[in-house]
Amino acid sequence: MIPCTKTGCHRWFRNKSGLTQHVNVYHPVLPSVNISVPVEQCQESSAGEEHSQVLPDGYGDSGNPLDDPSNSNPLAEYVGPGDRYYRNYHPNLTGRPCDSLGNFLPAGHPAEPLTDMQPDDWSPYSSRLEFELADFLFTRSQMSAANINELLNLWNASLLSTGGQPIFRDSGEMYKTIDSTPLGDVQWEKFSTSYTGERPTENVPPWMNDTYDIWFRSPKEVIRNMLSRPDFSDAIDYRPFREYESATDSRQWEDFMSGDWAWKQADTISRDPATHGSTFVPIILGSDKTTVSVATGQNDYYPLYLSIGNIRNKVRRAHRNGVILIAFLAIPHMDKEHASTDAFRRFRRQLFHSSLAYILHDLMPGMTEPIVMRFGDGHYRRVIFGLGPYIADYEEQVLLACIVRGWCVKCLAMRQALDTDALYRSREHAEALIEEFDLKNLRDEYGIIGDIIPFTSGFPRADIYELIAPDILHQIIKGMFKDHLVEWVESYLKAMHGTAKANAILDDIDRRIAAVVPFTGLRRFPEGRHFKQWTGNDSKALMKVYLPAIEGHVPVEIVRTFRALLEFTYLIRRNVITEETLVTIEDVINCFHKHREIFRESGTVQTFSLPRQHAMKHYPDLICLFGAPNGLCTSITESKHIDAVKDPYRRTNRNKPLGQMLIINQHLDKLAASRRDFSRRGMLEGSCLTATMQLFSTRAHSNTSEAPGLNRCNEDTDEAVDCPTSIEAHVELARTPRTYLITLSKLAAELNLQHLPTILEEFLLQQLDAYDNCDSDLPEWPTYGNKITVVNAAAALFYAPSDISGIGGMRREYIRSCHSWQNGAPRYDCAFVNTDSGLKGMYGLDIVRILAFFSFVSQSKRYPCAVVRWFDRVGDKPDTDTGMWIVRPAFTAQRRLSIGIIHVDTLYRAAHLIPLYATRPVSRNLKPHHSYDSFTAFYINKFIDHHAFSLLSDSY
Fold first, then answer.
1. Is residue 59 over pLDDT 80?
2. pTM, rounded to two decimals
3. Angle, nearest 10°, between helix axes 619-626 and 556-572?
4. How far apart are CA 207 and CA 950, in angstroms?
5. Closest CA to 571 of 557, 583, 561
6. pLDDT > 70 fraction of the chain, expressed in percent and rounded
7. Which of 621, 760, 752 is nearest to 260 (CA)?
8. SS3 content of the chain, % helix, strand, coil (to 5)
9. With 0-12 CB in 10 A as exposed, 13-18 as middle and 19+ as buried, what is 239?
């Protein structure tokens, strides 16, 4: 037995690893923490806002049967239109409203007003113009202080002649006004720490003498602000629930609170009757180093982000401040001589965990005893915190779980055989192993780094192994697709054909990728796969077009391997995952494992024991635990890097930039909070700024009252539209400055369609049901004016919650038809047409190519139309290898291309076609705008986005 050598401690241990764990927990080497507050002291909580003292008598014993701990029957309620779904809510943690002292309120009791401020009170601003100017200059334009001063000087000079008063004298006055905003005010604090362990007698490494500063904001106050936001009140879940389809009782998972983890946590918490009626608030964390500049000084930052599990996935993904920066962690830097030493590595890991534990320590009391916080609906509720999932890439996951690199952070599968089934890791099991084995055996047999304590060890109900969230971006998109399969294809071709021929094939694959026609939101690859640095967006874009590009050059097993991976990726990124979807995910995993064997059999790879590929098998369980994975992906935190780290860094003068970045973030939070408050009070309707400022405002804040296509119709981007989910899809002609009047005969000449007037007359007869009511062989043709209005685009608004969309899941894209796109080549997009609404997927749809959008007037009625070229489906089901439908141009009985005119109401949305290349080499001269005219068969690209995948995947 080994004794603890610390004075006053009488613990004994079987081995050194148990002693090390004990020392790190109870006698850490990072005990020196110095607290300082940068500019202003953190404001004290308002009286009555929070109460962590003993709650009033009768707590949890209100007579309401919902608060009876013996009542284990969940509460069932129908949700959504038509009672298609119902939810079973947790019976004890019910999110029941209370007053500011924690006393429960009777059902139906109205909430207190969120504020007593008047609708004309712009405090701390003097007017709307003052606020709008500050918000415009600081948030949207991100103007430097020097430029703000120059603008204000010019503006104020223009006011002198009219006797007007300046809005701000200079940038300093504007910053001071922003700073005086009480809303969203969570001050930055700092603590410093240093190494206090044993040191060598000579040549002490510099890191042992350094002091490390960690800047942070109180997570409790950040959560208080988040819960109190009125704009979140309709997108927040107060209770854990399980959701089912009414017709089949089949369960489905969507938002975080629909998962089993939240329910089980509520079960554990509610063992204490004093917690009944409370709201469980899971704390979601995420961290990742990021580089802001490769050319100047200190380039790396280590931000820590916080969200809560109660807000729904669509809010967290929509970049509406559902994820908040709460800290910048320290990054110890060391020369090469000492960077690889065990002592430095151990210190760096412990610094990370100790920092997290300190930052989160103010949440600890609220994890066992309810505290009172106010919510955005105006009600107070008792709140119980709990550490929830941690969003991180694999390198960060290894650090969090104190696991050896190469091992799985979720299960005990051996490093050399990750594909074998194994039990899940757990906190209790790891602690038992540490008590029993020495550090070497822990590392070699279980992949555990036994001399580091995870930060979760001091928090109740927290198991770091369970809390590691799935990471679609780095595990699947960047990892399996880009780093594994794309690289394996290149290695396979070289192994099978030799370097010279393989390079010729790879060049042809690149030409195929480069020849893909444009599509809204699709990144262009003019040189194929060849670019210096891959980003997550590069990988996502390449996934959309890669499969048809390799077909014909690789065996069918490789094609099916890619198909399985792509289908897995799109299935797990759905916003709602049903029991049926889970079964399909399992099937797709099995297909992937089956078909990938060609890479091992060909000698391309020696092993599939790779952590990121192994992670696939855990996704079904993680979905059941945490809901749809798209609400916990690292793409959310990486996107936040731009707003919270990279853009603020670019606004600094590079002299000690971190302090400036903290202030910039604080100002952004205050301006955003003010805008929410003024909007809630109805003070920002309309506009008081100039037309230019209004244009910038509309670009930054999409509005459902504007006509589709009013802005961005000349950009190749789609839009997230914040409007209610009232329609599945709607298309109308865009309002664009490129509208022009011509005659029908001129349009016919432009399109080389001399029979276009006849086609138009047939269209009108169809619209008027003339064929059904006509008694003569030669009906009287409807009349129309010769003048028509031609536009270059139509705007499609449709429900696509799995893609980038607004809070209601609505998304807008543009369907183009123009003889010159962005002063370049012509562009004539394809689209889906509704031909039979009673059939599912492609069975009720057809594909057309839009040759022109126009409208005309007949008998005082305007008809918005499209001239289209029809495609025919090849076969009655998708291709068995790629899983995509095949179409080819349709012809008439006279072997002419089938041309028609359709009403835009029949259009559903844009479609993306990729040529069926087969083994045909692609000409170096082939351009993207040639593709639709140069090939005779095409795949309907179901991987272009998630909406298309769901639309075309009939079996899922």
1. no
2. 0.87
3. 10
4. 53
5. 583
6. 83
7. 621
8. 40, 20, 45
9. buried
